Amino acid sequence: MKLIYVLGLEHSGTTLIDHLLSGAQGVVGLGEVANYFSASHMQHYHQRWGDHSNAYLCSCGKPQDSCELWSQLSDYSGLGALADAPLSAKYLELVKQAKRLKGEGTTLIDSSKSIHGLQNWLASRSKLGLKKSDIRLVLAIKDARSFVTSMLRKQPMKTSIVDVIHHYNYWLGVNRRLFKLGQESGLSFRVALYEQLCFDLQATITSLSEGFVNQEQLTTEIDHHHSHILIGNKDFILRNRQRVRYDDSWRSNSKVKCLYHVHRPVKRMNNSIYSDLGFHHFFNDQ
């Protein structure tokens, strides 16, 4: 068994990567596993989505109680009868059910995003039979200006200069920590630029999955029904999006663009990441 763990901020393509990689045979896209097993997160999730008819709809198209994967794990969720079970027991049961569906050689995709979610896997690694060489970290990053624009759209009442700077600081602080973690982890580490997913999709998913997924079966189609994402970007899942698209509305937002040039640490890190990965030509120094 192998694991691809997707790190990153919200609105950076983590759920998209999960969907794309889970289209190949022997791969199971799981969504945000750490949040599913967390009592506090699931209580918050239920408060926000509980009244929605599709609150517990898996991306495979079936509700949790009839999904071939999650119906076997519902007791271990943060709202289940075994919510207080040790995390290692929860992950062992998850792996058991995934192998039942896809076989011993399955590759799991967990897009929990957080360091905490990765630590859960590493703490259970010996019991799961996972070697370090069986784990790949993928850090999903979106251009800082595009990320801030997404956050402003999410909170339309908070678009002041202070709010923009706050989002830039958030982007910088989290991505610095995640980038350092990936480089120092001793695990296989790849960076996935959201813009590369949009404009060079085939090459990007090939790079992310090399050695972990059968390359001959990779596809650039978003086939939701091959994944089992229950907790993740719910808007993405419910829209049933079929293609990757890029929103370049940040280009017309003068506040976002101006403060990007003022915030030198953000600009320096953003330019460094995109230049190192050979994608600087798309953005230049706008």
- What is the average of the pLDDT values? 89
Strand order of the largest sheet: 2-3-1-4-5
What string gives the helices and strands in order? Answer: EHEHHHEHHEHHEHHHHH
Kindly provide the radius of gyration, computed on alpha-carbon positions and rounded to a whole number of angstroms: 19 Å
| Biggest β-sheet description | 5 strands, parallel
**Count of helix runs:** 13
Q: What would you call the shape?
A: globular
Q: Which stretches are low in confidence, meaning pLDDT under 50 for 5 or more residues running?
A: none
Helix-strand category: alpha/beta
Distance between the termini: 44 Å
Report the β-strand fraction as a percent range. Answer: 5-15%
Helix proportion range: 40-55%
Number of strands: 5
Could you please describe the fold and organization of this structure?
With 286 residues, the chain is an alpha/beta fold. It has a domain at 2-143 and 188-244. 45% of the residues lie in helices and 10% in strands. It is built from 13 helices and 5 strands. The protein has helices spanning 14-21, 33-36, 39-49, 87-102, 115-123, 125-128, 144-154, 161-184, 194-199, 201-209, 234-239, 254-262, 264-276, and strands spanning 2-8, 27-29, 107-113, 135-141, 188-193. A 5-stranded parallel sheet has the order 2-3-1-4-5, with helices on both faces. α7 crosses α8 (161-184). The longest helix has 24 residues, at 161-184. The radius of gyration is 19 Å and the shape is globular. The protein starts with a strand and ends in a 10-residue tail after the last helix. The model has no long low-confidence stretch (mean pLDDT 89).
